[in-house]
Design a protein that fits this description.
Blueprint (H helix, E strand, L loop, with lengths): L2 H20 L3 H19 L2 E2 H10 L3 H20 L10 E3 L7 E7 L9 E3 L3 E3 L2 E3 L2 H13 L3 E7 L12 E2 L7 H13 L9 H22 L3 H33 L4 H25 L16 H9 L4 H10 L4 H12 L3 H11 L11 H4 L9
Parallel strand pairs: 2-8
Antiparallel strand pairs: 1-2, 3-6, 3-7, 4-5
């Protein structure tokens, strides 16, 4: 690892954070402290893959050693075949001894699918707020509920520092099924290639398009027949679940935009969520009792659950069409995505609409949805 580069990156981020702290209120100041401390704590626990594999073998943890070796193959494949950054990201490993690296808070009004926004230095405005301790996330969400907002607290297995740090592999996702592990690595590396301030839908859709195309190529080139078959079954269930969620989201959005009075909207909302639960129960029966998405229903259902899902898929068909238009040439694809990202927002979205209409039921899951899968990593 290039430690000089790492120190420069650390210094740059701390300077930017320090400037933000200088003008922040007490609540924001505390949030930045936990963000900086939490991330540095993650980095401090990371060790090289060679050392992590040797340690796993010495402790007779053959499963971990195998998963780290597999992740290293995927990481090499990402740079060699998908032209993703060839740097230190995902070439180290950290066991955090917890199920998620962060917990993100999403919030919406009672009768709207519009996600609340938070704005920060460096990354701009985004539609979630992340915490390194679940209790902190729950506490913040409770405060938002007292203000009249609906909230969803989602455990997140991975995040990207956009290349400012060499992000490590984590126990929170290294045990995912093979196809899912590849998707996670490709998705997070894609954020280092293109990132547009204040446009979460653009960023997440771009990374999702990269992961979708990337995992198909990985499965074709490097995966075993058993891994391919397992992924196809896993992916089919996921697509069915996503279709259910997005259909429900669209029904709620249409209800909220209607001329009905608020009491009528509240009754309709209750009926739609009841229908979602019944339809999910039917899917579970169809899947032979597979309960992989039960955790998604652990919290009372809110608009925030469904609004978070839709945000991550809006422009996936546009980016998929863009990749096809350049014949699958990753270098040209990234260059064109950067060009579109540099356009003013209205022009950017007009170009994406010309490429393809916004995504509808693409079947891919965002990071917070993946955390509900039974392949969720060991602690």
């Amino acid at each position: 690892m290039d430690w000089k580069r790492g120190r420069r990156r650390t210094a740059a981020i701390l300077v930017a954070a320090g400037l933000a702290l200088a003008v922040a209120g007490c609540d924001t100041l505390g949030y930045y402290y936990q963000s900086i401390g939490g991330h540095l704590g993650v980095m401090a626990q990371a060790q090289s893959l060679d050392d992590a594999i040797a340690s796993a073998q010495a402790s007779n943890d053959a499963r971990l050693a195998q998963r780290l070796a597999l992740a290293r193959r995927m990481r090499d494949y990402a740079s060699r075949e998908l032209k993703l950054p060839d740097n230190g990201s995902y070439r180290r490993y950290a066991n955090l001894h917890r199920p998620y690296v962060v917990w993100s808070v999403f919030a919406t009004p009672e009768l709207s699918m519009a996600l609340h926004q938070w704005c920060f230095p460096i990354v701009g405005c985004i539609s979630y707020r992340g915490y390194y301790a679940q209790g902190d996330a729950e506490h913040y969400a409770a405060g938002l509920r007292r203000e009249g907002l609906e909230t969803y607290v989602a455990g997140i297995p991975a995040y990207s520092t956009l290349g400012y740090f060499d992000d490590p592999l984590l126990n929170t996702f290294v045990y995912l099924p093979e196809g899912e592990l590849a998707r996670m690595i490709f998705h997070e590396l894609a954020h280092q290639v293109v990132y547009v301030r204040n446009d979460t839908a653009f960023n997440e859709s771009f990374a999702t398009a990269v992961e979708m195309a990337g995992v198909e190529r990985w499965l074709r080139d490097d995966a075993s027949d058993d891994a391919r078959a397992s992924y196809r079954q896993y992916d089919n269930r996921r697509r069915q679940f996503r279709t259910l969620l997005l259909d429900t989201r669209d029904r709620l959005d249409a209800l909220y935009r209607s001329d009905a009075d608020d009491d009528t909207k509240r009754r309709g909302k209750t009926e739609i969520f009841d229908s979602l639960r019944r339809q999910y129960a039917a899917l579970r029966t169809e899947w032979g009792g597979y309960s992989g998405y039960d955790r998604w229903f652990d919290q009372p259902l809110t608009n925030a659950h469904l609004a978070a899902v839709a945000t991550y898929q809006q422009w996936v068909p546009a980016f998929t069409a863009l990749l096809d238009s350049v014949g699958g040439d990753w270098t040209r694809f990234y260059a064109e995505a950067r060009r579109i990202g540099d356009l003013p927002p209205d022009e950017r979205h007009a170009v994406l609409r010309q490429l393809a209409p916004p995504a509808v039921n693409t079947g891919t899951l965002s990071a917070e949805e993946r955390s509900s899968d039974p392949g969720r990593p060991g602690r």
